[in-house]
Amino acid sequence: MNKNSILVVEDDRPIRNLIITALKTHDYKYLEAENGTSAILEASSHNPDIVLLDLGLPDIEGVEVIKKIRMWSNMPIIVISARNEDMDKIEALDAGADDYITKPFSVEELLARIRVTQRRLALIQTGEMQEESIFTNGELKIDYTAGCTYLRGEELHLTPIEYKLLCLLSRNVGKVLTHTFITQQIWRRSSENDVASLRVFMATLRKKLETEKSDVSYIQTHVGIGYRMLRIE
């Protein structure tokens, strides 16, 4: 039995049943809610490990549910929605969602996203993301205390902004970070110019990380939305 319990918030019964069947097949514990009010009650009463949340709920907008949960909990929230506009995704992610899946979706993709979230959750629960001074991901190593970064054992020479970006992504590995969130964290503001600067710095950082010696991609671009550091097995 998987340790993590998952709250499924979906008003469309066939879709809810599809998700629950997939969870049961893979031995996940689950709770279910068909509207925002029930979702908030279930989340506060049972404190699930992960929330799968539809945005188009009959009583409360899913984004409002995210905001209410974020007032008292950092439990991972994966949005599953038919809304595929960038602004819908950005609004949900900025409100505090950890990931976003667009309907129609495959069960395999959903389970993969859950596994990524589980790994991130495990790191948080063991305190590694907050307390460890060394971060490792594939052949990438960051020594937070020394302020040094290594790739395949060789030190990477990063600019201060590149290093801050890499640290921000690594401390949120597996989570999509929006342009607004990143620029506010790096420059304490967010404007079109800041987003343009972010793209430039991210391009130079990726060039240093993703060399010809390796075909591994550490940073995933979500066009029009932001970036995510991938967990390398």
From TrEMBL:
InterPro entries: CheY-like_superfamily, OmpR/PhoB-type_DNA-bd, Sig_transdc_resp-reg_C-effctor, Sig_transdc_resp-reg_receiver, WalR-like, WH-like_DNA-bd_sf. Residues 132-231 bind DNA. The keyword Nucleus does not apply. The modification 4-aspartylphosphate is found at D54. Residues 5-118 form the Response regulatory domain. It is found in: Cytoplasm. GO terms for biological process: positive regulation of DNA-templated transcription. GO terms for cellular component: cytosol; protein-DNA complex. SUPFAM superfamilies: C-terminal effector domain of the bipartite response regulators, CheY-like. PANTHER family: KDP OPERON TRANSCRIPTIONAL REGULATORY PROTEIN KDPE, REGULATOR OF RPOS. This is Stage 0 sporulation protein A homolog. It comes from Blautia obeum A2-162.
